Amino acid sequence: MTEPTALRKISDLLPTLKTKYDLLGQKFEKNFGHRPEFFARAPGRVNLIGEHIDYCGYSVLPMAIEHDIIIAASANSEQNLIITNYEEKYNDYKSKVNQFEINQDKPNWFDYFLSGFKGILEKFNLEHSIGLNVCVWGCVPKSAGLSSSSALVVCSALVTLYANKLELSKSDLAETCAAAERYVGTQGGGMDQAISCLGQAGCAKLIDFNPLRVNNVDLPAGAQFVIANSCVEANKAATNHFNTRVAECRIAAQILAKSQGLDWRKIKKPFDFQKASNSSFKELIEITQSVLHEQPYSIEEVCRILETTQQELILNSLNQNTANLKEFQLYKRVMHVFCEAQRVYDFRDACKLESCTAFEVMGKLMNQSHESCKDLYDCSCPELDELTKICRESGAYGSRLTGAGWGGCTVSLIPNDKLESFLDSIKERYYEKNDRLKNLFIESAFPTKPSDGISIVLS
Predict the structure, then answer these.
(1) Pick the catalytic residue: 54, 68, 111, 192?
(2) Is the CB of residue 437 less than 8 Å from the CB of residue 387?
(3) What is the largest CA-CA distance in the chain?
(4) Which end of the chain has fewer surrounding CB within 10 Å, N or C?
(5) What secondary structure, in 3-state letters, does 146-190 show?
(6) 223 has which bridge partners?
(7) CA-angle at 36, arms to 31 and 40, nearest 5°
(8) Stated pTM of the model
(9) Residue 59 to residues 62, 124, 165, 200, 237: CA-CA distances in angstroms?
(10) Is residue 146 over pLDDT 90?
(11) Average pLDDT estimate for 411-425
């Protein structure tokens, strides 16, 4: 592949990782009667700042994490696609490689594999893949805002590429997977797939879009990021909250464009409006404040402002997941987007400061980001608000929700010398509230560091 995907041998892995691959290989052999030919790995991610703005066209600042999806795979000669899971609680899936269907309304776990699989077939205009036997194992917490679903899509696409002896750059693979995830109904922007493919140990990444560009961001020494799961599951493909926000941001940008004498039909996201109007973030905020009102807009009001029909609005601004929406919250959504986009660049610049100053500025920006997600984007929940508050009071410079929200995880910036006391404090104040949370603490709160992106491991 261009930008070659790392090739490793199991024998070269650290003992703890080797054990994991050996266990997955044994499960694969139990399922299929032979050892896998290779393994593919795709990591999850934590977004440090820049929430809900990748699909608006703006830069984000995530890092890949050690938690990952691993798939053991081999070819079969029967043109079968057989998808199994290391964990018995997940159903198997079997079809012919050219006779599969993806459930967009209520996606099952294997539909994410099918999305990555289909993405590669369509990218290369293939009628079908070779037959595949696969066994999936993931340690990215599910529905936690750490991109378990995107990691599975990426890992599936990587398996399909390697098994069919196809080549694709990491950047092209990321963009292919971002498009492929829409097969399960998620209108994302590409951050999750990009960092899973292009992650690098030791640094976070500033990811720009249109075209996809990735730059290293070195994090200051002396502090680390800690993930803490609220243990409220948030499945963005199973609800319409996520896709509604995409539509609201698009319509807001289109109304702003029309107010400035621009062709609103050419505007698909807020970044398009910024580019067409040649406005700074400060100017965008001023235009928003003068043009949009804070109350929700009815579909009739939107059509009246844009001088269009509901039918044309559905064609230009909505999709099959959002065609039935009748009310749109525009001011708050686009205000979050413009302010959050500026915070990403401020965060990047803060990483270049001396450590003590850097941590104070980074923490303040993380706190502002969470408040914006809560008050303007309405994507937090009481448990996330409580947990971020506890994290700050337990010694964090800053704490915010990470991922789509409506549940899932927080990420906090912690001084290295306060890690133990921080974990003790959030355990006592949040996780020991009831037996369910108490039993989940060990897997729910952990420090993390930047990890490498995708790789192939040879059996």
Answers:
(1) 192
(2) no
(3) 67
(4) C
(5) CCHHHHHHHHHHHHHHHHCCCCCCHHHHHHHHHHHHHHHCCCCCC
(6) 415
(7) 115
(8) 0.92
(9) 10, 28, 33, 18, 23
(10) no
(11) 97
User: 8 pairs with which residues across the strands?
Assistant: 457
Q: Which residue in this structure is represented by tokens 């355990």? A: 427
- Reading phi first (left if > 0) and then psi (alpha if -120 to 50, else beta), residue 227 is in beta
Which contiguous run of DSSP H or E holds residue 333?
helix 331-350
Is 192 an active-site residue? yes
From CA 135, how far away is CA 28, in angstroms rounded?
6
The encoded tokens of residue 328 equal 């749109």
DSSP for residue 2: -
Quickly count: other Cβ atoms within 10 Å of residue 398's Cβ: 26
Residue 237 has pLDDT above 70, yes or no: no
Read off the amino acid at residue 232: V
Between CA 256 and CA 253 the distance in angstroms is: 5
- Give the integer Cα–Cα distance in Å for 426 and 307: 52
Residue 330 carries which side chain, given as an amino acid letter?
A: L
Dihedrals phi, psi of 152, to nearest 5 degrees: -70, -40
Residue 10, amino acid: I
Structure tokens at 300: 């009739």
pLDDT tens, residue by residue, 357-380: 999 999 999 999 999 999 999 999
pLDDT at 2 over 50: no
Asked if pLDDT for residue 242 goes beyond 60, the answer is yes
Q: Which residue has the tokens 């829409």?
A: 182
Q: How far is CA 403 from the centre of its chain?
A: 6
Higher-confidence residue of 141 and 73: namely 73
Tell me the CA distances in angstroms from 287 to 187, 245, 248, 284, one per residue in order: 27, 20, 17, 5
Count CA within 13 A, CB hemisphere, residue 431.
20
Q: Which of the pair, 182 or 249, is modelled with greater confidence?
A: 249
